[in-house]
């Protein structure tokens, strides 16, 4: 599975029997950079270790409390953020993200010439941002094509179910995804679809 430089990611992934049925069933799944990468990073922080539904409810209340811009978040009373549903820890994390974003003048353009690992290093230096959150930012905020977030439980369980692996063996999951390069982010989208379908 070595694609040419102009290969279609879906055609490439379709070559793996584990993914063929998913590509056929769901059709082309697309990656697109987020319109607001700061808000997308905040969303990933809110989704740490909670259900998507719970995090989205908190985000909705947060947006009712303040604008999701670095300046507005930093100017908001931390008590108001907690009243919106953020824990004390996530209040600190969101404020740390806002401060770093403002001070470093981050933007999608600012990250454009930076490789994935350097983006991870930059983001994980922020209090409350770990590898999972950084990977979510790479995939959903920047639209990077070759990220496979093995720190995500759904990715591990979905890949394990598709490929007969132990979901706790991150090395095996990572190695199984190697043939999906350089489109592992697209593969992740299909694996998530599979996992969500199995959980439904």
Structure description:
The protein is mainly alpha-helical and about 200 residues long. It has helices spanning about 10-15, 20-25, 35-45, 50-65, 70-75, 80-85, 90-105, 110, 115-125, 130-140, 155-165, 170-175, 185-200.
Q: Do you know the CATH architecture of the largest domain?
A: Orthogonal Bundle
Number of beta-strand segments = 0
Distance between the termini: 31 Å
Structural class: mainly alpha
Strand portion: under 5%
CATH superfamily label of the largest domain: Hypothetical protein, domain 2
CATH class of the largest domain, anyone?
Mainly Alpha
Q: Point out poorly predicted stretches.
A: none
Q: Determine the mean pLDDT.
A: 95
Coarse shape: globular
Helix content: 55-70%
- Within the CATH hierarchy, at the fold level, what is the topology of the largest domain? Endonuclease III, domain 1
What letter string, H or E per element, gives the SSE order?
A: HHHHHHHHHHHHH
Number of helices: 13
Largest sheet: none
Cα radius of gyration in angstroms: 18 Å
Number of domains: 2
Primary descriptors:
200 residues; single chain; mainly alpha; Endonuclease III, domain 1; Endonuclease Iii, domain 2
């Amino acid at each position: 599975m070595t694609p040419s430089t102009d290969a279609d990611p879906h055609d490439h992934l379709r070559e793996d029997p584990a993914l063929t049925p998913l590509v056929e069933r769901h059709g082309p799944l697309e990656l697109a950079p987020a319109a607001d990468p700061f808000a997308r990073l905040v969303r990933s922080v809110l989704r740490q270790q909670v259900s998507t539904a719970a995090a989205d409810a908190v985000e909705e209340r947060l947006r009712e409390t303040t604008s999701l811009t670095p300046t507005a978040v930093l100017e908001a009373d931390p008590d108001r953020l907690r009243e919106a549903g953020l824990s004390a820890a996530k209040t600190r994390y969101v404020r740390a993200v806002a401060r770093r974003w403002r001070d470093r003048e981050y933007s999608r353009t600012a990250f454009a010439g930076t490789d994935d690992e350097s983006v991870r290093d930059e983001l994980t230096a922020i209090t409350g941002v770990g590898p999972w959150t950084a990977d979510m930012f790479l995939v959903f905020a920047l639209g990077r094509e070759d990220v496979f977030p093995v720190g995500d439980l759904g990715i591990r369980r979905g890949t394990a179910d598709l490929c007969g692996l132990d979901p706790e063996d991150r090395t095996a999951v990572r190695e199984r995804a190697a043939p999906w390069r350089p489109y592992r982010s697209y593969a992740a989208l299909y694996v998530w679809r599979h996992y969500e379908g199995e959980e439904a």
